[in-house]
Design goal:
Elements (H helix, E strand, L loop, with lengths): L3 E6 L8 H15 L3 E7 L3 H9 L3 E5 L23 H15 L3 E5 L5 H7 L6 E4 L11 E4 L18 E4 L8 H12 L8 E5 L8 H9 L9 E6 L6 H10 L3 E6 L4 H6 L3 E5 L3 H7 L4 E4 L6 H9 L4 E2 L5 H9 L4 H14 L4 H11 L11
Length: 372
């Protein structure tokens, strides 16, 4: 019998696409090992559904009802990400779990906590939570937080003793292409001048950091000597304004939408200006020096940790021009080498393999480092 996984994650202008994309990476690895994967998503966009289906997985949409919009008691910080109560969402998801006889339920959603998990557990005991915040109670068998800043202690009292915690970039959920391109990317890091600059501000970039950055770099004489590759997701809502800017700019700018060769693109880029989302670990795996932006509330802690560990340099729309010029100066070799070395050491690209290994081998003897 084929083993079955149900994944509960959403993507929208508010949420972004990062949660679904990292779950898709996990789904692809599991599928390669013979698992069948179904995504359960609330009012998903056509683009994200197409991407999941093209990867060989199925999608079950959940739809909203005006009568179901009451807020759960004891609502958590990101409750506004969910159009219904946790109880309603769990009941709808549980119907799919029961129908498919799921062996595992994976959930990557800041608006869902132990309230949701308790309902799902009635039909599937093995729940795998992907989290970044450690800000709510969770009831799961497996927990993954791929960021640098937290430790298992951050989840003390928030998960039970049965839970195995996978913490840190060692478990970052990267597609296989990043591990495959890693050696080629690293080999060129210490020999190439900073000329080809990658800009990637997330799958949606609702606040249009992309255009804000380009406006500031337009003022830099060093930027005028570079080639800029701008990566945009299919849901990017500001294309008309970006196109107008590019048509008038003195900068050399090429835009690419919804690409499928991000590892190759990063490998042949010399530097990146990017958001502190899941793609941070892709850049680490490839040793790509980065000026990093916090483009959402939940990214600030990640960005601070990356700078604290000497992996990336924090920037903003107010400082990007000076930060950029600092990295492109001729006396930057020591700084650049440290950024490359620290990034490579943080993530080797094998996190998704380790995560699915735990899914396939978990048992009652797997515990966290502490007891709740």
């Amino acid at each position: 019998m084929v083993r079955q996984i149900v994944i509960r994650a959403d993507a929208s202008e508010l949420i972004g696409t990062g949660h679904v994309i990292r779950c898709l990476t996990l789904a692809d690895e599991a599928a390669d090992r013979g698992w069948s994967v179904c995504f359960v998503m609330r009012t998903p966009t056509e683009n994200i559904v197409k991407r999941i289906l093209n990867s060989g997985h199925s999608v079950r949409p959940l739809f909203n009802d005006e009568q179901q919009k009451a807020v759960s008691r004891g609502a958590i910080r990101h409750s506004h990400w969910l159009a219904v109560t946790q109880e309603v969402d769990a009941s709808q998801t549980r119907s799919v779990v029961q129908e498919l006889k799921a062996d595992w339920v994976i959930v990557d959603h800041y608006a869902l906590d132990a309230t949701w998990h308790h309902i799902i557990e009635q039909s599937c005991e093995k729940i795998f939570v992907i989290d970044d915040l450690a800000d709510r109670d969770l009831d799961c068998s497996l927990l993954l937080n791929q960021n640098i800043s937290p430790s298992a202690e951050a989840y003390r009292g928030k998960v039970s003793a049965k839970c195995k915690c996978l913490i840190g970039p060692k478990y970052a959920l990267l597609r296989k292409e990043f591990q495959e391109w890693r050696s080629r990317s690293i080999a060129r890091r210490y020999t190439k001048p900073l000329k080809r600059i990658l800009i990637t501000m997330g799958g949606v970039d609702a606040s249009n950091y992309t255009l804000q950055v380009l406006h500031e770099l337009e003022k830099s004489d060093l930027a005028a000597k570079c080639e800029f590759i701008v990566i945009l997701g299919p849901a990017y809502p500001h294309k008309i304004y970006l196109d107008k800017f590019i048509s008038l700019s003195r900068l050399s700018i090429k835009c690419r939408f919804d690409i499928r060769n991000m590892a190759e693109t990063m490998t042949y880029s010399d530097m990146c200006v990017g958001a502190a989302g899941s793609t941070s670990w892709e850049r680490c795996c490839l040793g790509l020096p980065t000026l990093i932006f916090s483009t959402a509330e939940n990214q600030l802690e990640i960005a601070c940790a990356l700078e604290e560990h000497g992996i990336s340099l924090m920037s903003s729309t107010e400082t990007i021009r000076d930060d950029f010029d600092k990295l492109l100066r001729h006396d930057n070799s020591v700084l650049l080498k440290n950024l490359v070395d620290n990034a490579m050491a943080a993530c080797d690209g094998l996190g998704v393999v380790r995560a699915v290994d735990y899914m396939e081998g978990i048992n009652e003897n797997c515990y966290t480092e502490f007891r709740s």
